[in-house]
Amino acid sequence: MIRAAVVTVSDTCFRGEKEDVSGPAVAEMLRANGFRVDGLRVVPDEQTLIEETLIAASKVSQLVVSTGGTGLSPRDVTPEATRNVCDKMVDGIAEIMRAEGLKQTPYAALSRALCGTRGKSLILNLPGSPRGAVTSLGAVLPVVGHALALLADMPVRHDAPDSAKLNDKEFERP
Known about the structure:
There is one protein chain. By secondary structure, the chain is α/β, with parallel strands linked by helices. It is 41% helix and 20% strand. The mean pLDDT is 92.
């Protein structure tokens, strides 16, 4: 199975003042779509800790999904951390998420969520709300498999969205 890591970025969840609902919702959706989720991590809104967590997760998981810290408050620094650790940015994926979110709320326009690559891993920021996180992930899952195949340097066809059939052996990490 393709390995995925889920990272919740939230001061209140990290301190135990609030239950993490978004991380488990994202993990459940990933599992339902054939990913192996290697646990959930919760980190505070501290840029250095977010960067370290994304780097560590990308060493073992092909897909690293964060939820939270993508808004406008002073402590929302997930996009900055993501940009700092990525080799390439994948702007189109973030654009798809915002476009889908706008169908449900005008506040989706305030999301600063990013998507990028680090080595052969795809790092994807999702909103912190469970509904926003699941909506955003659902909107981009159809292209995630193709992106992961390209990152693994697998031969893929670009004329059919479902042509990037993923072979689990190709994605195993030592």
